[in-house]
Amino acid sequence: MSLFGKYIPFKVELEKYIGHCQTVFEQIGDTRAVSLVDGFIKDLEGQRYNITIIGSLKRGKSTLLNALMERRDDSISPISSNVCTSTIIKYLDKALAVSDTKKEHAVIYFDAHDSSISPPITVSFQHLKSYVTEEQNPENRKRVRSVEVFGDFPDWSKAVTIVDSPGQNSVFGHHDVLLMDFLPYSDAIIFLVAADIPLDGGDIALLKVLSEDEKRKIFFVLTKIDNIENPEDLDEVKCFVTSKIQEIGLTCEKLYTVSAKPVYEALTQGISGNQLEVIKAENGILELEEELEKFIILNSDQTKILRSRIEMLLSQTSEACNKYISVSNEILSKKTYDLSILEAEKMELMNANDVLRENTKKALKKFSRAWDRAINNFHRKFSSKSNAIEDKINEGLDQGGLWGAVFQSFKLQKQVQNAVSLELQPLVIDLEEKLEEVITTLNNEFNDELSLYIKRKSGTDLGATAGSAFAVATMASTVTWGISATNGAISSATSAFSTWQAAADALRIAEAGNSTAVVGAIPKLWRWLWGAGKATEAITTVTTTGAEVANAASSAIVAGVTAVVTAGVSIAVTLLAQKILRHILVSVQGTRVVGITEKIMSDMEDSLFKSLSAYKESLIKEYKQNIDDILEDNTERLAEIMDIFENDDSDKRQLVSARLEEVKKLLSEGIRVQKQIPMLQ
Ligand SMILES: Nc1nc2c(ncn2[C@@H]2O[C@H](COP(=O)(O)OP(=O)(O)OP(=O)(O)O)[C@@H](O)[C@H]2O)c(=O)[nH]1
Ligand SMILES: [Mg+2]
Hints:
Strands 4-3-5-2-6-1-7-8-9 form a 9-stranded mixed sheet, with helices on both faces. It has 23 helices and 9 strands. The protein folds into 3 domains: 1-44 and 312-332 and 650-681, no CATH class; 48-109 and 118-304, 3-Layer(aba) Sandwich (Rossmann fold); 339-647, no CATH class. The longest helix has 62 residues, at 339-400. The chain is α/β, with parallel strands linked by helices. 68% of the residues lie in helices and 7% in strands. It starts with 6 loop residues before the first helix and ends in a 5-residue tail after the last helix. Strand 8 (218-223), helix 8 (231-247) and strand 9 form a beta-alpha-beta unit. The site of magnesium ion has 5 residues, from helix 3.
């Protein structure tokens, strides 16, 4: 594993997570979270660890750097047996370069010269040596302050800047100044001592100028140990170096021993992978890398900042995610509609009212005409019967004479009644049947026409069936009651009323058993229509309760018609007989009845027609009222559907649920990142 082999994968994952956060928050439009993430990205970009390699001249700093950076040549950090590196060189991943170029390059920064400012220049690796080596830039005549090298370096260079420094000695004083400016920014300092030149005065002088803080970050590394053949000699050197360090008051818990040259040489020969790892391990490089990573991660202030930033990001991310989840769930839990079904209903309803109005007009006109025809027909026949009635009465009178008849008034009364009944009864029955037929035709016509606009929920919709049957029964009962009462036919009215009561009871039971059906989308419309003409159909489709109600409703209509005719005609007929009789008895004008029946019948007819006409008007009014209700229901329902279309948010819902998935994924990613934080503790 290379340098920062544990931290780098964590950082890569963290960066991926942050990128995902940014996308998700932008999508869900959480601007607060977006700016939080943006800030974090900047922090993380600025979050870099620095490792600086220092030491006296020719201790092998550049060789170690090339080994750590796994370089195959020394173009970026020249190695030489002569005094070599002449300036501070930082190595960074080329992705971090400010300039647009994506190629490997180096940026040379200069010191101000003769109070003029020299801007930095960009050079290729090939020309780097002419700025960074003592050989080509003796005594730093080019006044290079520092160099930044951007290249294809190992992954860890994205998070760690490694710095090569010029060897320190009193001869090249300018080196010291450069280094001292840079050291405070280092998270770890590798102090290189060469095994063949144990700590000398120059090394000690360098150590002494370091600040206390810098001293705490030192890794003492003894290099070039391949030069020492005898292991005992190595121990001796180590002891010597350690004691020297302690002598000047520094602690040296561990003195790392490495040989950088064999590793670098292996690299120049193209060795890589496991073979390289073995060579690195044999030469102490691997241990140094691991320890450096551990030390830096644990001791750097930047780690503490990083940790607290990650924790803040995670907690705010989960807060933003949870907020979105709860808002989304609220949106998604709202009722949904099948828009294609609603669209069909909308189209039907848009037409329905016009057609309904037109058909109502036609049906009622037809009904009115048929009714009047039945009445006129009755009238014609009824008027023509007066002579026949009188003839029959006179026959009786001829036989017994008036006074005889008076003495046998009971007989006379019977005679008159028989005459009236015989002549009028067929007419009465006929009228009754005709009117019943007219009403049934109207019912059927309405039902057939209007069923087009009825949305039936199902064949077992008991509540709706019962409801409609009940409405019809109520109507028939009300009308019947009114007409019958006028004519004194209390019993007919009572029977219609009890029919109505039966329907009401049945409705209550049905409603209790199926209350949801009653509160259907347009129950009023269904109630009235379905029951009106479909009583028989209902019997076959609904269960016992529904069937009972439907039966009751049919009976109520028939009862209504019968009541009118029976009450209006039959009772009138009885009264007619009584009036004729009374006239005979009171007038005492002769023994024959002539011309009086016609007058009495005409009076009775007037009264009967008044009642029938009232009944007809009530029926028309009742139907119109029901149609108006339906029209109103249709309009309301249409408005409701339009409203649903207007507020349709199915696209939004789709988007919300897709984003919800992303947010949930982000939350689980966050949990994974969180689990890795202990690595930073
Ligand atoms: N045997 C051996 N030689 C080494 C090792 N490391 C470096 N050298 C040699 O030491 C000499 C100096 O190496 P550099 O890496 O240039 O040393 P430096 O500290 O960067 O030198 P300056 O930049 O001039 O301070 C070179 O001849 C290297 O080959 C090592 O581990 N073993
Ligand atoms: Mg060097």
